[in-house]
Amino acid sequence: MKTGWYFGEFRTDDVVLLDGLRCSGADHDGCQKACTIFWREAWLRKVEDGVAPSVPDPEANDQLRARLKTSVRPNTYFCQASELLRATRKLKRSERYSKWLAEIRAGNCGPLEMARRIAIWAFWKARWLLFGPYGARKTKATPTTTLNLQPGEWAEVKPLESIFETLDEHANNRGLWFSPNMRLLCGQQRRVERRIDKLIVDGSGEMRSLKNTVFLEGSHCGCAHIAFGGCSRCEFVYWREAWLRRPQDSAETNVGRS
Asked: How far apart are CA 58 and CA 242, in angstroms?
């Protein structure tokens, strides 16, 4: 598990992810981060073949909901993201390098996929040490672009050279990092999954606002370029509208979509 530049693991070995389940943010003032939800095994039970699923009890659900804490104070919330650092422990460097074997044993990925992840990490680690952040320029000021893209619209990722022109000395655009894996979508067209105007910060629970930023369908971070062996959290990648453009005409919209 990775958050920011913090590499850690849960303190107990009983946490799993369920396919496709993300937080809606409805109980946290509309947070739009869409975090993958972590599940303790104690909250789950195996489904036996031929056994009908249990029927949810609305009254019990309401009682549970009433017991759950969702905020600490104004603009600060209580959720899995806010408690992530307390629920995990920071991995030592040697431990980080040994986790690849645990990932394979757990069935999270196969040996070939893990070898690919490690090769990606080694390449970008060497490049960072030799040349610094990918795409960084010798400038501190970065431009802003407002497209007002809406969910369902098509957007095209600009050419890499155009994106580099929007980055500062740390490869950021107004604090948002353009990570190396994002270059793989340059020239492609994707639908806008959603706008991202506010989110809860990992570890603090503080709600922060963003401008001119969206999620694109199918654009997730595996973190192989910065985390040895990758990360299974599968968070959305944040895209500044300065890195995107609308397709020019209907003929272009049929090229490069995926």
From this structure: 45
